[in-house]
Amino acid sequence: MLSRIKTPEFHSIKITDSLFKHYVDLIAKKMLPYQWDVLNGKGECVKSYCINNFKIAAGVLSGEHKGVVFGDTDAYKWLEAVAFCAMNGEKDFIPVADELIELIEKAQQPDGYLNTYFTVVHPKQRWKNLREGHELYSAGHLFEAATAYYQATGKERLLNVACRFADLICKVFGPGQDQCKGYPGHQLVELALMKLYRVTGKTDYLKLARFFIDERGGSPNYFIEEMKQEDHLRIFPELTDYDPAYSQSHMPPVKQETAEGHAVRAMYMYSAMADIAQACGDEELKTTCRKLWDNVTLKRMYITGGVGSSGLLERFTTDYDLPNDRMYCESCASIGIMMFGQRMASLYRDASYYEAVERALYNTVIAGISAEGDRYFYVNPLEVWPDNCLEHTSIHYVKAVRQPWFDVACCPPNIARTLASLGQYICAVDDRSLYINLFISSEMEIDINGNPVRVKMESTLIQGGKLKISVCTNGKKAITVRIRIPSWLENPVFYSNAEEIHPAMENGYAVLAVNREGEQNFELSGKTPARLMTANLNVRADIGKVALTKGPFVYCLEEKDNGNNLAALRIRADAIVEEDVPQKDLPGDLPTLKVKGQRVISTIKDSMQLYGTPEFQTKEQEIKAIPYCIWGNRGSGEMRVFIDTVY
Amino acid sequence: MLSRIKTPEFHSIKITDSLFKHYVDLIAKKMLPYQWDVLNGKGECVKSYCINNFKIAAGVLSGEHKGVVFGDTDAYKWLEAVAFCAMNGEKDFIPVADELIELIEKAQQPDGYLNTYFTVVHPKQRWKNLREGHELYSAGHLFEAATAYYQATGKERLLNVACRFADLICKVFGPGQDQCKGYPGHQLVELALMKLYRVTGKTDYLKLARFFIDERGGSPNYFIEEMKQEDHLRIFPELTDYDPAYSQSHMPPVKQETAEGHAVRAMYMYSAMADIAQACGDEELKTTCRKLWDNVTLKRMYITGGVGSSGLLERFTTDYDLPNDRMYCESCASIGIMMFGQRMASLYRDASYYEAVERALYNTVIAGISAEGDRYFYVNPLEVWPDNCLEHTSIHYVKAVRQPWFDVACCPPNIARTLASLGQYICAVDDRSLYINLFISSEMEIDINGNPVRVKMESTLIQGGKLKISVCTNGKKAITVRIRIPSWLENPVFYSNAEEIHPAMENGYAVLAVNREGEQNFELSGKTPARLMTANLNVRADIGKVALTKGPFVYCLEEKDNGNNLAALRIRADAIVEEDVPQKDLPGDLPTLKVKGQRVISTIKDSMQLYGTPEFQTKEQEIKAIPYCIWGNRGSGEMRVFIDTVY
Known about the structure:
The structure is a homodimer. Chain A is globular and about 75 Å long. In chain A, the strands form three sheets. The first copy, chain A, has a seven-stranded antiparallel β-sheet. In chain A, strands 15-16-21-19-17-23 form a six-stranded mixed barrel. The first copy, chain A, contains 18 helices and 23 strands. Chain A is of the alpha+beta class. Chains A and B meet through helix 13, strand 14, strand 19, strand 20 and strand 23 of A and helix 13, strand 14, strand 19, strand 20 and strand 23 of B. Strand 14 of chain A pairs antiparallel with strand 20 of chain B, so a sheet runs across the interface.
């Protein structure tokens, strides 16, 4: 039997890629201190009461709990980012984190319960509003932080806090007669329990994760019944007329075939389902995961790796409904695509799942953070006209510029922890293989089945150059290096120690043998031309439109480079896209693209009129595009991914 | 000095036009009985508590008030429609209306106050939440019903009820020391007071209308201050974070230059401002009206005469922001365009204002009601894909099919009263002129300065035929007949008693003399070709798209005629549009249009993929269009006004 594909244990990892290094460095140097200030209520533009809430719950400060019910998770996500940064060699925040962990431990109740909102505000309402209370969601972020912190530092204190709470949850929830049959309103704890299970080996955690998935969507619906309780505490008045599909509880998860409801919840749940399917060898659940993945990536995902077509309720809508200007595409939902895809690649041992992971990471996830690291997008539009992004309108949730923080501040720390833990997406291992999934230049020291392996990867594949990988082992055990061949790479050619080789292909991976001590060098070359792409005919929003791409990067036009009214620009569907020098004031050293196009300069004779007989006039215009991931870093202006064609 | 242009007193009016007769007949024969059932809680699919609320307030029934705070207005608008139908010769509902009026009178409080919600539910909260309470709005609808009913029947009972209430309002509100300095949260009472003033001659009503306009938008904002009161009763929780622009109270109306906030409120207020400017000869207010009209019609109005680009808060957004699929375009707002335009034409003595009135009436207002008269659109999209009109999404307010009724049921009775009173839009009079503004075949008996005039109009102008007008006077006083020359009529030629004449043109009207007793006949012929139109270059949503039109009618494509995925259809910007026979199963006997076009049948090679290299393939397809006003009468399906071009 094949061994499980998993994230390696990193002894060290150093990102050297021009784009990602920029952001990874920002996390330790700028985002961790910035977010720490925010969490402590010292933010420049924003105030979070997160740390104070823990102090109040711990009894070391008196006052009122403030902020949203799931505010604790900001601290947990911050701790998780600190842990990942430590793995990356940036350990400055460890002492601060240790103090925070001490505070968190103090806020934990004697029975293991840990949630500042319910402890301080509604101590008698524990577990009574699973739909809105986010207790299990918050627990999930605690468990994720705890496992990451333990893996990064070897320190057990937070892991013990997490296990005490997890043990309590195992007592409260489960199939037993006196146990609660509910499940989380916002999924996450399921996949977090799987992490805790892997680190601790306690099968109770796996069982509980499975219980939450199995119980979900039963009839009658738990959340609807819960709302009927006399002492039911309402938290979010906007969630009247609750539709169970919002939280994917409209039917048992294993029966679901289309992605419904809140996109982030969906992604977290599907990720947990893939984990459980793998851990339990559950073929039915595995098939469900495949159906859901296919539905998301083949019918409901933007070219930027964004998901969630409706701003209202941040939800999926229907197949091929992908409007460019009124979508949601929450940064966290694209992080969810990365999480789900990573697990699917492991479950199916197939490189192709990384196409969407890469698309999400290289476009929407990076776009979520500013070049300076201190501003964020929650919503990631494919088309923006700042003039109509007004408060209190149908697209008021679309912001034309990144914001300093949010009341519901899931995205900033989520982006931080994701970029700080890139290693888990770059490579994976099983007992005898190293899988290279993303081409992000880096140096890593990991273990494969107990044997140390040093990997050095330099990639300029996307820039039209090469991928150079050097793998160094002790030679005690032969391993194979499996390199994903991405769909965007044309004419891939392999070299081993400077000689052309023809490796076997398995499930999208080129299989290379490493069977001696010392360094072995591989090279992969190929072409990554800039090219136009378009959407399926059923995507009504995009018919006759094209997007400029290069490798995994989707490009966009900005007003700054192309003038305003980007809707007036046109290119031919067979236009030749040329590469140009990187934009100096933007990070990543990524090529810009240019293409000869047209601009509609007149539609009707009298430009003072609103309607008239069409008299379309155009002029030639060279169109310039920059990578979508770095848009919005040069002031407010129009932006557009899909451009109309003339053909 | 020129005498005021006003709506004539109709001794009788009979609509004979093929399209409008269909709907006008429906009102008396179907809508009045249907709506009466609804108001009495006997609706087939819907329940309104409107009449029961009056019974409870009158003390003849015990129970709880149910429904929205402005529910009374449904009865008033129904009464107004009954009155207009009576003018049209349909008097069956007069006895029922008389009974209802008796009930309304019983529900009126001894001091004149009349509002079932506040009387029954919150008697101590009168006038304390002007922002949300709708007391003045409801009063406005009472005043409108009362004046119409009096004019139609000569019966004074409802007029007396209205005046008693208006007199109370004059006491409560005004500049005096003990008077309230507030103004209505939802405008309407201002223009209703103007009607009451014209019928009764009481200048107090004019003064109060003026007071409401003058006081509005003062600093500090009345509504914001009102919300700070300790006993403030909240009615609509969704209106937290109140933005005074929502109710056009962000600045004094006379200073406003752009249309902001809730579109219906705006239109009603502008209409009142035009009335007041005319009555008071206020040049500054007149200029403001002109600026606001220009802003609406030249920058913020759909080609269908719809307004309100945002579904959230049903509001205006910004210049040229006219998305086709997520707009609001409430039927009532287009009725507001008709009201405002009618008053502007009178204020400026200029026919051109009727271009927008006609556009709104011939497209959005009629589209609001089904061919059968029993289903309604509240929101009037220019593009619908039923699959993505899901509940709880960003465009959930867009309905792909007309609905039987609404919780906020302003539109159905508003459409009914508008279509029942078409005469006021067809013609106007001053002391010596008859103005023909719309070409709706009809027979009317009216007075001009005390002299009876009989007008008979037969128009097939839009169908490519002629306008025949016969005017019959007693010859005691010479009058002029002024016929609007619409922008869509090409090569107009006039005949008087079969001889070609060349009348003078004044402000868009051809001026014809009628100076002898008996019948005088005029004919107007010209061409009304089907033609393509497009929008201003600044309308980003429409660049490179065209709409098919003929005269004032905007046409649309329906899935039923053209297959699904209408976004895939293309026509040339210089395509020849041909007329075809009317669609038999749709009312109005209006020509359909056809045009040779293309359908994109492939965008990428592998149609199972979501994105790929563009390989656009098209095939020839004849495209068929029907008038927008009768869309959605053949089941649910896609619909689209603006079609992409190839050029």
